[in-house]
Specification:
Length: 565
């Protein structure tokens, strides 16, 4: 570290070097985030299956602890739809119909997720987010969004919700359309229309807060709660109880450990993506390991404060950034305003229609149903790729589709695991079946003859290129492909290793076998343009067995030129 550079603060790093001129934009951004946070937190808590106020309980400590421990200047942390539905899916089978136990287990899940995040961050496991590919995450999020919408539509219609997964709930909605309560549908439908209109034409207006206020006014003035419109009902004013949740044994925490890692993985991947987006925009770096610590601290504090699982929010982070936030002071301002809401404004939300909350949720997640992105993934294909890899020629689309339908059919966590497993399996499958191209001469270069039919090919010389690393899983495939290229007139086989970044001992043994088999047929086997790790392994394991050349032209020369070993 240079002498002129100050040591970075361990806590509240974004406030280091704070300037007085930043107070106004941070305060305005905090107020703007609060206007979005309050109605969304109330709504997302209902997705998790707990009272709406739990979303506010979770927001305050999450914002403060992330500001203290995280590395992003802009990321806003709080309840989110994806992790909320995961929380409900994890807790519901364990808690059953016991509402008190459901609430305690929801807080316990946040605590275990927080501990897992802290441990992962301290062990520098920030790279784990890379194991969820963007297509898998996209399919997972689309599936979650559809599941959430299916769960909220009955509240919008004023009908009972069916048990079961997405398809059972969708069928339940269709079969009960005739039972819709018209007042509930009217207020929910109007709320949804207002939200979508404001988002389209007045994006700077906090639409969620507007419809919440309008819904409360409508119920209060027209006494709609006395005419069949369901409302949130009584909310206890004041701050939550601090400490471990009641009525649980240590075994309950232990049993939540496995699912908590799934929640952490999803929350971390989504939050890190949002943090990186704004870091790149404003020219600073985020530390993945510190992000894990920040997310862990936020969840631990949320759980100890009677809250629920939290993670970084792209939508609220976007609101924060567009409002001009410079540091995490904006998050602290939003947290302070949420405290004031809990102390003095909770009574106002008791008249909030549940159909309006459902509209807030639907409007928030409907943009996540991104079928256009799935179509783009499907379009990443060519006839040549199809010929090489068959059904695995669209690996990203297949992985996204498996994650999507896995969520719809089996649930959130199983769907996520299925998507990750399939993406890894397709990666291994494609790596085990690499394309081995036959090369020909064209304008002084060696090119794939399938792509360039005009390239010159000699029956005496076979030049092959493996478009992959060489390792145990594909060694036999490569061996067979090279053997199939050789004919009775072949005298030289050259392996162009420029596109082969790695090689392992099994592959080196295969190349030795190829060399020996070809030698018995009077065919010379040579390696050209081996680079990096390939050169190291060739020199260490098989350097004495092969003729190694710096260029393909040198390798194909006959008789042999002076090789570089």
């Amino acid at each position: 570290m240079s002498a002129g550079r100050a040591r970075q603060w361990w806590i509240f790093a974004s406030l280091q070097g704070y300037r007085a001129s930043w107070i106004r934009p941070d305060a305005i951004a905090g107020l703007t985030v609060w206007a979005v946070l309050v109605p969304e937190a109330l709504a997302y808590a209902t997705i998790a299956g707990v009272a709406p106020v739990v979303g506010l309980y979770a927001s305050v400590p999450a914002l403060v602890l992330y500001a203290a421990a995280g590395s992003s200047r802009h990321l806003m942390v709080g309840p989110m739809s994806g992790t909320a539905v995961l929380s409900a899916a994890i807790v519901a089978p364990v808690a059953g119909a016991d509402g008190g136990r459901f609430l305690s287990l929801t807080a316990a899940l946040a605590i275990v997720t927080g501990v897992a995040g802290l441990l992962a961050g301290l062990c520098r496991l920030g790279f784990i987010a890379a194991f969820i590919s963007e297509p898998v995450l996209k399919g997972f999020i689309v599936g979650l969004a559809l599941t959430i919408i299916a769960g909220q539509v009955p509240k919008l219609l004023g009908v009972g919700k069916s048990d079961g997964g997405f398809f059972a709930q969708a069928w339940g909605i269709l079969s009960r359309l005739g039972d819709a309560e018209w007042r509930t549908l009217l207020i929910g439908g109007c709320s949804l229309v207002v939200l979508l209109v404001l988002r389209r034409w007045l994006p700077l207006v906090p639409g969620a807060l507007v419809v919440v206020v309008l819904g409360i006014v409508a119920v209060s003035v027209l006494s709609l709660d006395e005419h069949g419109v369901a409302i949130v009902g009584h909310i206890d004013a004041g701050m939550p109880t601090l400490g471990l949740p009641d009525g649980l044994a240590w075994r309950d925490f232990y049993e939540l450990a496995g699912p908590a890692f799934g929640v952490l993985l999803i929350g971390f991947a989504q939050g890190l993506g949002a943090a990186k987006t704004f870091a790149e925009r404003d020219g600073y770096e985020v530390d993945a390991n510190r992000e894990l610590v920040g997310l862990g601290a936020a969840n631990l504090a949320s759980g100890l404060g009677s809250g629920m699982v939290v993670n970084g929010s792209l939508s609220k982070t976007a609101v924060n950034g567009e409002a001009g936030a410079r540091t995490q002071l904006s998050g602290l301002v939003a947290a302070a305003l949420t405290v004031l809401t809990l102390l003095f404004l909770t009574g106002m939300f008791e008249k909030l229609p549940e159909s309006t909350l459902a509209a807030v949720v639907i409007a928030a997640v409907v943009e996540l149903v991104d079928f256009a992105a799935l179509r783009r993934l499907y379009g990443v294909w060519s006839r040549r790729l199809g010929g090489i890899y068959g059904v695995a020629a669209r690996p990203d689309f297949l992985a996204a589709l498996v994650a999507l339908f896995g969520v719809l059919v089996f649930g959130a966590l199983p769907g996520l695991v299925m998507g990750i497993v399939v993406s890894m399996a397709l990666l291994v499958y494609r790596s085990a079946r690499p394309h081995v191209a036959r090369l020909g001469a064209l304008d002084g270069e060696w090119v794939d003859v399938e792509r360039h039919p005009q390239a010159r090919v000699s029956e005496r010389i076979v030049v092959a290129r493996v478009e992959s690393g060489l390792f145990f899983a594909n060694a036999d495939t490569v061996r067979k492909a090279i053997a199939a290229m050789c004919g009775d007139d072949t005298r030289i086989v050259v392996l162009d290793a420029k596109s082969t970044p790695t090689v392992d001992v099994t592959a080196m043994s295969m190349l030795t076998t190829v060399h020996e088999n070809l030698a018995r047929r009077g065919i010379a086997f040579r390696i050209a343009r081996n680079i990096g790790q390939v050169r190291d392994v060739v020199d260490a394991v098989g350097g004495g067995s092969f003729e190694v050349f710096t260029t393909v032209n040198e390798a194909v020369a006959w008789p042999r030129t002076d090789p570089e070993r």
